[in-house]
Amino acid sequence: MLTDPIAGLDEALAAIDAFDDVLVAGLLRPQKIAGLTELADAVSGSPLAARVAEAAEKTAAGAAGEEHFVSLAAARVAVLGSVHDAVLARIGEATGRPPGEESDRQPSETESPNLLAAARSWLSDLARAGWQGIDHDLISASAPVISALLAEPGLRRLAVLLDGFAAELAASCPGAALERVPVRRWGDLWSRGMLLTLPGVAATPAIGTVTGRLLPLGVDLLEHSTAAQAQVHAVIEPADGTAPRLVRASVTVPKPDTIIGAGIWQLLRPHLSLLTAVSESRSMDLTDMPVTAEGDLLWQDEHARLGEPADAFSTARVVLPKAITPVVTPLDRHPVRIAVPVFIEGYGIEGDEDTLSFTFAGNQFSLETDRVPAAGPLTSKAVAGSSACIGLIRWDGEFRLQPLAVETTVRKKTTAVHAGAWAGGTTDKAGVKAEKAATDAAAVLRERAGRLLRK
User: Fold this and answer.
1) Of 213, 244, 247, 221, whose CA–CA distance to 233 is shortest?
2) Dmax of the chain from CA atoms?
3) What is the rounded CA–CA span in Å between residue 357 and residue 380?
4) Is the C-alpha dihedral spanning 120, 124, 126, 127 positive or negative?
């Protein structure tokens, strides 16, 4: 199922590419109006049809206003949302796991129409200029808007998006000199930003609580030069006897760019006790832990305690096939966000350590070993010698698998190797050495920071 083509997928992505091509030169006087027409045609059978058709016509004539740009952004988000849903539905068919149910959303607490209008005005100016027309004056005009947005907690989501977007654009000025434009990425950021300027769009999923046994599957570690995030994928078995469901628990921390590898865990551990359970292969007992309808645990240590030993591969074999997959909120339905935990075994292995793929049922399944963090014992070599794997299915034009843990044979014994094995601490020689180096680096940074503060 994961290798067969999905009907309509190529046409939907072609419509996105065509519209993104229009954004490169700008919407003030678009030269490639075919991209506008294709986007309008892509949503012609939806409730957006009339608005987007009018927006495409006005934009092609050079007479579009902010409301027309919002309609185009909504159409772009809707088409990518349909791609997300089609891909996720195919994964659901392949895994046989039941989908969750739609839930109500809570309205955003802060609505500041003037700030939202200011952000929408800047994004509209950006679209008129196009990526080839950006300059420092245009980008710097966002600074006061972003500063005002950051001061409002209810608008922080939009503020952070615009802050990062503006920084990327500033680093790419002037646009006329760009050799290569990240058209899909900037189109994503622009359209998402436009929709977040509409009152009510930033509504969050309803938050409830859950009590039961949490069974970790693995850890996905994301690293940036100034930040790091650990996302623990797990299954919760509710105490009320309802069906198990997939959940996530995440922690994000700022970090200096000198702390890399296993040292990152030192920054993350104090904020998420779940990392200790992952390292020790134990469950956690949750009591009234806050959770969103999307399956994100809003982790609070006072609602959790370490439980009994729980092997991730046993969880993957026995509990994961019955776990309900949470439904994603409309604005977050983008194929790049897809990361579905799966368990596979009985596969063959092809390629070298840099281009590994699993083969089963006569099909090849590419692996994203470059996503496996250096801050753990899981390596391409371990994956290449594995017989079973827990991973995340992702999609980037094709289905790919990011390994989180594998079972491999070491000295004639089946051994589990986890990417997050060092998350809560380790006695592994390589891990201990990396931790010590990070501790030394952190001590030096603290001492230097102390000097600056004393001055």
Assistant:
1) 247
2) 72
3) 11
4) positive
Q: Which residues are within 8 A (CB) of 21 and not within 5 positions of it... i.e. 6 or more apart?
A: 32, 35, 183
d(CA 43, CA 23): 18
Peptide bond into 174 cis (omega under 30): yes
CA triplet 10, 14, 18: central angle to 5 degrees? Answer: 175
**Residue burial 178-202, b: 16+ Cβ < 10 Å; e: rest:** eeebebeebbbbbbbbbbbbeeebb
The Cα-based distances of 360 to 92, 342, 363, 364 in angstroms read 18, 15, 5, 7
3-state SS class at 285: strand
Stretch (H or E) spanning 309: strand 304-309
Phi and psi at 443, nearest 5°, equal -65, -40
Give tens-digit pLDDT for 241-278. 999 999 999 999 888 777 777 888 888 888 888 999 99
With contact defined as beta carbons under 8 Å apart, do 70 and 198 qualify? yes
Nearest to 240 by CA among 212, 203, 278, 206: 212
pTM: predicted TM-score of the whole model, two decimal places:
0.89
Contacts of 56 (CB under 8 A, 6+ apart): 33, 36, 37, 39, 40, 72
Please say whether the beta carbons of 260 and 240 come within 8 A: no
Q: Measured in Å, how far apart are the chain's first and last C-alpha atoms?
A: 64
Q: Pinpoint the alpha helices (H) of 96-112.
A: none
Reported as a single tens digit per residue, the pLDDT across 88-145 is 999 999 888 887 776 665 555 556 889 999 999 999 999 999 999 999 999 999 999 9
Q: DSSP labels for 197-261?
A: TSTTTTPEEPEEEEEEEEEEEEEEEEE-SSEEEEEEEEEEEETT-PPPEEEEEEEEEE--TT--G
Q: Which of 367, 409, 404, 369 is nearest to 389 (CA)?
A: 404
Phi/psi at 88 (5° precision): -65, -35
